[in-house]
């Protein structure tokens, strides 16, 4: 089940964190993550870009990331788009520009959709090398 905007708002500050939270980023069934820095991505190049948001997911919520369609139309492709239950930290967005022109992203610009999914019968939380990450991490 995908969490609706109503359910996302209900859980923020309760058992889930998205900080700083932007009202304009909340969509009917997703949350738009924003670029944490200004960056230019040349054609045919990959850049690691941190999300502006620090995210904490509870054990019963996972996330799927997708490039926003307005950027996909320019050739921006997101690699690696899953957030395990229990993850805490900034998200490192692996962004590739497959278009012919460079793509400029400004800090605070909405670039990636985060769909939040309910996990039935959760067993364990994420505790990997990216836990509590800050900024873009290799």
Number of strands: 11
Mean pLDDT across the residues is 94
Largest sheet: 5 strands, antiparallel
Portion of residues in helices?
A: under 10%
| Rg | 15 Å
Spatial order of the strands forming the largest sheet: 2-3-11-6-8
Number of helices: 2
Classify the oligomer.
single chain
The class by helix and strand makeup works out as mainly beta
Order of helices and strands: HEEEEEEHEEEEE
Structural write-up:
With 138 residues, the protein is mostly beta strands. It is 8% helix and 43% strand. The protein has 2 helices and 11 strands, in the order H-E-E-E-E-E-E-H-E-E-E-E-E. The protein has helices at 5-11, 69-72; strands at 17-19, 26-27, 30-34, 39-41, 45-56, 61-67, 76-79, 82-83, 88-97, 103-105, 110-118. The strands form 3 sheets. The protein has a 5-stranded antiparallel sheet. A 4-stranded antiparallel sheet has the order 1-5-9-7, with no helix packed on it. Strands 4-10 form a two-stranded antiparallel sheet. Strand 2 and strand 3 (30-34) form a beta hairpin. The longest helix has 7 residues, at 5-11. The chain is globular and about 45 Å long. The termini are far apart. The mean pLDDT is 94.
């Amino acid at each position: 089940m995908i969490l609706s905007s109503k359910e996302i708002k209900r859980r923020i500050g309760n058992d889930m964190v998205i900080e700083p939270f932007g009202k304009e980023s909340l969509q009917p069934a997703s949350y738009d993550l924003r670029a944490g820095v200004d960056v230019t991505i040349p054609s045919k190049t990959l850049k690691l870009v941190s999300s502006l948001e620090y995210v904490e997911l509870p054990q019963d919520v996972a996330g799927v990331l997708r490039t926003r369609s307005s950027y996909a139309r320019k050739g921006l492709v997101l690699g690696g788009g899953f957030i395990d239950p229990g993850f805490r930290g900034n998200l490192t967005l692996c962004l590739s520009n497959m278009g012919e022109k460079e793509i400029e992203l400004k800090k605070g610009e909405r670039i990636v959709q985060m769909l939040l999914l309910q996990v039935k019968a959760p067993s364990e939380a994420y505790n990997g090398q990216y836990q509590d990450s800050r900024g873009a991490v290799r």
